[in-house]
Specification:
With 156 residues, the chain is an alpha+beta fold. Helices cover 35% and strands 25% of the residues. A four-stranded antiparallel beta sheet has the order 4-5-6-7. β4 and β5 form a beta hairpin. α2 packs parallel to α4.
Length: 156
């Protein structure tokens, strides 16, 4: 089963007023360049997902125009993964307030300021354990042990 099929399966539940948007895939070369920029190896499942779609948009379906509104990204496009991770690791206004973010590879957000990231065990490797970073108290809580489990968590 592809990532797109799995995502559609989880988000095609009765009563959902949302839909997903998939984008042209990312090349292996682009993923490798991103890994070099961030000095971390992306987890295999994130690499596979990006090779199918450059992020996953989340749309809200409305009864009145506009009928379809992009409300965020379930999985960020590669460009945002790069920019946001560099920002959180290097911006002095952020680094002076929070613990370092070198141990996380952010790839999604909750829409309220909290971010989701894979654990980076030791440079340059990472694993599939996913943490929610709370922007209010700087806590980091493991919420999933795989990308599939994260997608299930987000579909609830």
């Amino acid at each position: 089963m592809t990532w797109q099929e799995a995502l559609n399966e989880y988000f095609a539940l009765p009563g959902f007023d949302t839909s997903l948007e998939f984008y042209p895939p990312v090349s292996e070369q682009s993923i490798s360049l991103a890994e070099q920029q961030l000095q971390v190896r992306f987890p295999q499942n994130l690499r596979a997902l990006l090779a199918e779609t450059n992020g996953v948009g989340l749309h809200l379906q409305l009864d009145q125009p506009p009928h379809d509104v992009l409300i965020g990204y379930l999985i960020w496009p590669l460009e945002r993964i790069i920019v946001d991770n560099i920002t959180y690791r290097t911006n002095s206004q952020i680094t002076s307030v929070y613990m370092p973010f070198d141990s996380l590879l952010f790839f999604s957000d909750a829409g309220n300021g909290d971010l989701f990231g894979f654990a980076v065990v030791s440079h340059p490797n990472s694993i599939d354990r996913i943490y929610r970073w709370d922007h209010e108290d700087d806590s980091r809580l493991c919420i999933a042990h795989s990308l599939k489990e994260f997608i299930q968590f987000m579909s609830k």
